[in-house]
Amino acid sequence: MSSFLSIMVTVITLGSIVGCILLLRATNKNKTGVDEGASMGHTFDGIEELNNPLPKWWTYMFYITIVYGLGYLALYPGLGNFPGLSGWKSSEQGIKSIAEKDQRIEAYADKAVANQYLSEVAHAEERFGEVFRSIAYQSDGNYRPIEELATDEDALKIGQRLYLQNCSQCHGATARGSTGFPNLTDNDWLYGGTPEAIKTTLMNGRAGQMPAWIDVLGADGVKEVTSHVLRLSGRKVNTLEAEAGAAKFAVCAACHAADGTGNEALGAPNLTNNIWLYGGSRKAVEETLTYGRAGVMPAWKDILGEDKIHVISAYVYSLSQEK
Predict the structure, then answer these.
(1) pLDDT for residue 151 is more than 70
(2) The pTM is what?
(3) Fewer beta carbons within 10 angstroms: which end of the chain, N or C?
(4) Binding site residue list
């Protein structure tokens, strides 16, 4: 928050409280010229208005809430950039990397600093860490095979919860993905759908890179290669245009293979199955060839740890298996 915004928030907050105090004091003074308890001369529907002051208990309640509010603002963050006297934080702000987060945690190790988020994470790990370990490991201390976990109802329930908490923002609650985010329920995998490949993806992340080809192919070349690519997936296109595109497809074959079936080692998608990550319309394919694509799957090993990832991998693997 900028200094100006911080000052503005502080002034408005304290000004509102001061205004409440002044209003409360003003309403407790008898400025009507009528004795307390006497009639104000107003009657409506048989009800007469009397000049009665605000009840004492009500007045005291208002003052108590004002004192409580000032105390709260002094102890906890709330007045602009003022951190509060208690040192309490809801979470760490401004952290840009996992390493920086770990450094902050270490710095707090010997200090009485209350951090709500870190406290809840530590409590959750203490309470549920053993549950994840008991699910993920065999009696000999090795991880249970993912194929075996994928048939374990308890493991799948835990894996589903972890998935919903951490993965559904991109791949959707049903894991069917959306434009730019793969569907995890079919058998079309950019980097392979084996249990080991899925776990590797979750652990280390993926960084896809489809270059832009407009400078190499030109506008006409992009249209021609688009026709060839659409024909590979069984679409009806202009034959002459597709033939011209096939001759220029050599620049694509290095990643997608000469027959367009893709390469899992590179994360290059299969172009023959009519499954499209960024859309399969002519316009969408032309945009991909013209501008390129750069999809990133973040690494989760430092965020969730291998035990949880092992369980999530089993859940994701189960989604694409025949039930």
Answers:
(1) yes
(2) 0.69
(3) C
(4) 167, 170-171, 210, 252, 255-256, 297
